[in-house]
Amino acid sequence: MEAQATDNPQTQKIVLAIHGGGIGRETSEVALAVAGYHPATLAQSTDGLGVHDLWIFEGLLPRDNGDLQVTSTNYDELTVAGISAQVAIDPEQMEVIQLTFATES
Fold first, then answer.
1. For residue 105, what pLDDT is reported?
2. pLDDT tens across 70-81, in order?
3. Residue 84 and residue 11: Cα distance in Å, rounded?
4. How many domains does the structure of the chain reveal?
5. According to the model, what pLDDT value does residue 97 have?
6. In sequence order, which ranges of the chain are alpha helices (DSSP H)?
7. Domain limits at 29?
8. pLDDT tens digit string along 37-58?
9. How far is CA 56 from CA 6, 46, 47, 77, 79, in A?
10. Dist. CA 52–CA 80, nearest whole Å
11. Which of 32, 36, 37, 83 shows the shortest CA–CA distance to 56?
12. Which residues face 21 on adjacent strands?
């Protein structure tokens, strides 16, 4: 990871989407929006809230992407582990948002 001149530890966030693409419906799009990017165009947001680091694991298979799903507690992908290790996380300041999307019947 490389620090950027615009990094501000008080406002900088890391958005991780470990069930993107075909694994979890619209997870990638939500992660992009939260990180400050338009999900369709990838243009940076102009809402004044800034952009944040983003990492997405996407299932891109033509079908059966659910087979790629790993529970969050068992997720140990090295890139995410490296990102997490390099961020000084104060547990009292950490915010975890879990989104669940209903599937169409």
1. 43
2. 877 777 777 766
3. 16
4. 1
5. 52
6. 27-35, 78-86
7. 1-105
8. 999 999 998 887 778 888 888 8
9. 22, 22, 22, 11, 11
10. 15
11. 32
12. 59
Q: How far is CA 8 from CA 55, 94, 104, in A?
A: 18, 16, 40
Ramachandran angles phi, psi of 37, nearest 5°: -125, 145
Q: What are phi and psi of 52, to 5 degrees?
A: -130, 160
pLDDT > 70 in the chain, percent: 63
Measured CA distances, 76 to 51, 85, 90, 103 (Å) = 25, 12, 20, 27
pTM of the full structure: 0.67
CA distance 33 to 90: 24
